Amino acid sequence: MDWTVENWGSTSADYPLYDAAIVVDSRNVPVIAYRNGTPMDVAPAQFFNNFDALLKAARRAGPSDPVPVHFVHSLAGTALIGAAAIQPFDLDPSMKPEDFYVLVFAKHITPQVVAEISESFNIAGLSLDAYPIPGRLEAMLTDVVGNKVAVFTWPPEAPGTKSYAMVEGDLRTAGTVLVLFLCGIGAAGAVTVRILKASESRSRYRSLHDALTGLLNRAGLIESIAGASADANLDEAAVKLHFIDLDGFKSVNDAWGHNVGDELIVAVAHRLTDALPENAIISRLGGDEFAVVTLENPLLLSSSDVGHQIQVALTRVFEIGARTIEIGASVGVAISPDGKIETGELIRRADIALYRAKDLGRGVTVEFEDSFDDDTNRQADLEAQLRTTLTNGGIDVSFQPLIDARSGAICGVEALARWVTDNGDRIGPDVFIPLAERSGLIDLLGLQVLKKSLLSAASWPDIGLAVNVSPLQLKNPRFVKQVTDALQSAGFDPGRLSIELTEGVLISNPDQARRAIDGLKAAGIKIALDDFGSGYASIGTLRQFGFDRMKVDRSLIVALDHDQNGGAVLHATIALANALNIPVTAEGIETEAQATALRLSGCDALQGYLFSRPISAEQVTELYFVSSRRDHGEEQSAA
């Protein structure tokens, strides 16, 4: 979602080719809908006439067919709109075109656009009208179903009328006037040609350069790589592509706003221009991503020279206004010996190297290696397996009991996702959950786990159900509705459900977290803060979000066995929650001594291997409900 918004949604603010960018899913529900750089407050189907017909035309178009491009009425006027299905390079025969997502771009024909067309093509008096105007020339604009949308009109010109009127006069005077007239036409033609060339030059510059920094944009970078590759082939040199991602830029935006962020981007562009060799080609790809292309003799320069220069340049502090800002950079490098690697492949390799650098931490430069593709292919295979598993509803759910600290009876369960592949491999949550987040499957995974958990727990009376939620799920504006629909479908009491959140989402996206938490609490669902004590969550965080439960991180329990201050820290943490009237659950308990210490400290719910490992729904039913009823019946019979 971040990539989609950054590359399509946000660029609609000032991009010359479109001012609206929309992606819809297979049900024509918008995934993103941006206009002029901000989310649209009106559904695209209501904003644009015949929007659904355009989507159908896009899905009908084959890979070699032209993209459907038409004019359309919108709430903002008349627009040129195009749509294309988002589909893989190699189509699977089982894929249905109606299941494809569709990308839509639109450009509104504003008075400024009309004026630019008029200037570019030397059409004096050009205007956009609702209906034809008698006496004016016209060009009708139609929509996807052939309806008339608007019409371009302009006045006809008759430059020979005056000449004909003068023919009756003196022939010599007429000849002189004719010569002057032809000279005037030649001069006007020369001026027109210059105007057209200047307009074409401006348009080309805008299409290849970033509006904020003046550096090349992605299109300009691709064109430059092609030229550098041709030169490298002749000179037996190597093309080196460096992808740069700024470390800590998001924190700058969050702390001081986008205006300061834009100033920092401009400062980074100047810093790179000053620090790198004159022959270096520098571009901004969007957001906080930059790229540098150099043409080098591989025998003279080490593979990390330019990467090192970039690191040194960007680790020096920036002075923005009265602020001192410190950032860094992650750099991914790909090399094309003799310029023989195709441009798209070179970009792909640099991108993979950049992701590897980001995974390793701040301020790292990584050069692409062939082994990276093996990792990427393994991840791609695993993603395909996960997608198939989710489609078939194959994710399993285990449950770890929560034990009442006073009575020792079960008081709840925590749902834990489990994945066993078709060939019997067990994939841990620490692997497949980040994979689902990267591949856009986390919403489907989370909803599948929730629904299965609710159906299983519905038959367990009077105990709670805790379900973990990924921070990315909270970004989905339909998340609260999905949870409440699942509760209603399972006939599950909302008061028995707890949604567990980690503190990271509260710090990185507090507004989104607030909206989601308020919606869930309004539906009667409890909210628990998971892993408290492992990060930076504070008393203010506990008060601000009004949690119904706090789970103490396992690291505090483990510290009881080897840290002489561990007991005091744990007791203080639980005392803090008790002072705020927040019930406390302790997880990761493995010994009776730990359980006793937690009971004495004020925990009301305990969880860990001491009581039970994660077990299936059938085992929960047998161990805690069927057997307990059987034992109770035997006691009554004995009595």
Question: Concise description?
Answer:
The chain is of the alpha/beta class. It has 23 helices and 25 strands.
Describe this entry's structure for a reader.
Helix 14 runs parallel beside helix 16. Helix content is 46%, strand content 23%. The longest helix is centred in the first third of the chain and has 38 residues. The protein is built from 23 helices and 25 strands. It folds into four domains: 153 residues, Beta-Lactamase; 48 residues; 151 residues, Alpha-Beta Plaits, CATH 3.30.70.270; 236 residues, EAL domain (TIM Barrel), CATH 3.20.20.450. A hairpin with a 5-residue loop joins strand 17 and strand 18. The chain is α/β, with parallel strands linked by helices and 639 residues long. An eight-stranded mixed beta barrel has the order 17-18-20-21-22-23-24-25, surrounded by five helices. The model has no long low-confidence stretch (mean pLDDT 86).
